[in-house]
UniProtKB/TrEMBL annotation:
<feature type="domain" description="Amidase">
    <location>
        <begin position="75"/>
        <end position="488"/>
    </location>
</feature>
<dbReference type="Pfam" id="PF01425">
    <property type="entry name" value="Amidase"/>
</dbReference>
<dbReference type="GO" id="GO:0003824">
    <property type="term" value="F:catalytic activity"/>
</dbReference>
<dbReference type="InterPro" id="IPR023631">
    <property type="entry name" value="Amidase_dom"/>
</dbReference>
<dbReference type="InterPro" id="IPR000120">
    <property type="entry name" value="Amidase"/>
</dbReference>
<dbReference type="InterPro" id="IPR020556">
    <property type="entry name" value="Amidase_CS"/>
</dbReference>
<dbReference type="InterPro" id="IPR036928">
    <property type="entry name" value="AS_sf"/>
</dbReference>
<protein>
    <submittedName>
        <fullName>Amidase</fullName>
    </submittedName>
</protein>
Amino acid sequence: MAITGPTITELNLIAKSLCMDLSDSDLELHLSLLQPNLAAYELIDSLPDNVPFVTHPRTSGYEPDLEQNELNAWHRKVSIKGEKSGLLAGYKVVLKDNIFLAGVPMNNGASTLQGYIPEYDATVVSRILNAGGEIVGKAHCEYFCLSGGSHTNSKHSVKNPYNPLHSSGGSSSGCGALVGAGEVEMAIGCDQGGSIRIPASWSGCVGMKPTWGLVPYSGIMPIENTIDNAGPITNNVENNAKLLQAIAGHDGLDPRQYRQGVDDYLTSLKSNINDLKIGILTDGFNRPESEEDVDKAVLDAIQVLSKLGASIDEVSTPWHNIGQSIWLAVALEGLTDQMMLGNGMGRGWKGLHSTSLIDRHSSWRMRANELPNNLKSCLLTGQYMLEKYNGHFYAKAQNLSRRLTDEYDKLLSHFDILIMPTTPMKATPIPTADDDEALHVQRAFEMIGNTSPFDTTGHPALSIPCGIRNGLPVGMMLVGNHFDEATLYRAAQAYEQSTDWKAV
């Protein structure tokens, strides 16, 4: 793009926005001083961007009609075949629609981003293809991924595969619905407040939010760097471990990553659980929003683990119920600053940036009235707190997140796993046009009390189905030490192999 310098009037407006009062002579001076700086920008503009090459051939695919998309879970269908052999050979994988897939339109659930086409693949995409997997499409997600319900996508609600009048869970709503319905075996979701685990819980899938930084987020539209996570949603534990094995590990492009090694998750599935110590986190049960049958289903599932040899005891920390408030300050001020005011990428971090996303997403300001009320509420809160308190509470929440992490680590020094319901309630009804707008917003956030604290602390957390109540799945969440996904898989596999969750 051509670089144009500011006029005197534009420079004066910029100065005033920076609380500077410049005289006409000052403005003339600074206008001349800007010229060498602008020349540097012109040089940057003349150079090719340094982004990954696209290696596997593909077409842009197509948007399926209603007959092929009864749950409104598909954003786009494609067929991008990977290598002929590898860990994922023969598997079909769908991607949440905030993940870059070169040449294929990406909406991230939003009307304001419609028409955007990424020019390179996310690291997780390259790794799936290199491992022999086939990318078969993009799944609908919630508007900029800001809902735990499945009713905020700009192209209508995503339906629960067990009851189409209920939510599939968000924000990886299409991923949960497609895996839960058996249309695909594997999906990649993203999780900043529970967005892998909530759809796994409500749609009857296995969903892993890995340790923060284990899976590279490069080439995925961020919300807030310190809580961004990508991970697998699958039809069973083994496939979940297999997909995580393929996508995990350092890529040199994501500053969220701070550990190079990757464990052998598949070998861990073969071990018994006789040596495991499991803590029932009582603070995750009997919450104000809890449903009694959900709590009971999880407690019954824990007894199965006990019969399989794990030792069980109850534990508690008041910090668990403080965790959602800590998460909220980080998430709301962070997303306002990075995802919205920062045009998707923000600043202050090294790694793989997308200039095309910045250019396209910045236009949200001209169409802000189209944003759903749950997102407007987040933005209004975040902007108010940033302007009124200058980021004070974001900073304090980040400090408190270390204390929250320590509190969970104290428990995990005595237990291998903490267990609680993934979501305190089963899938809620999808709100309709006749429902009060306050209910629409409530349906976006009411389920995140147990999931969101672990996005702040970075602990791995896995949701596994443990029963059906009133025709809807119930999810049990296993939380472990940082980078100890293998132990979570070991316990989940033992439970899955010993129980038909649809019959209990």
